[in-house]
Amino acid sequence: MAARIEFFYDLSSPWTRLAFHNMRAILDETGASIKWRPFLVGGVFNAVNDAVYKGRNNPDDPKVRHVYQWLKQWADLAGVPMNFPSEHHPIKSVLAMRVCCALEDDQEKLSSFSESAFDAYFREQKNIDDPAILEQIADECGLDGGELLTQATEQRTKDRLRSNTEEAIKRGAFGSPTIFVDTKYLYFGNDQLPLVRQRVLSD
Fold it and tell me: pTM of the entire structure?
């Protein structure tokens, strides 16, 4: 039986953008099933990893400088166009992730919208905190952007994003992407995808 992968993610994360793309090869090779799980990485940071904010406040930190260099190299390796960081970074992703939660029950539509939103933010440097931009992205995916934005403001959608975030925290998440294989094996980030692949193939 194919292993089940859960991919908790936030559209604001550059490493998640890469992992979202690179995960496809693992799925194609292994035949594993996946469930995309939108959550709010800021909520995770606030709960268990607030050191992230300290790093952002010191752009001269050697680690910060090297991270951006490595990010570009990873993007080149993956063949993913990435113009980052932009004037919109770090972005408030609450509305965008609520839109994702409104689509979560239709995984194909969620995947399509997320791919386009990642591209809009990381390649085209668009502000995905802008409702008009989100509506445009959805419309271009063949979705009803206006209706999605309405759903994003509904309490049930807000509750779903909160629930997904709290679930990820309880299960050990400390950033995006957080990936689970067979519900219990946790992996983090783009660079751990080879471990995800190994775990799936070992089952």
Answer: 0.93
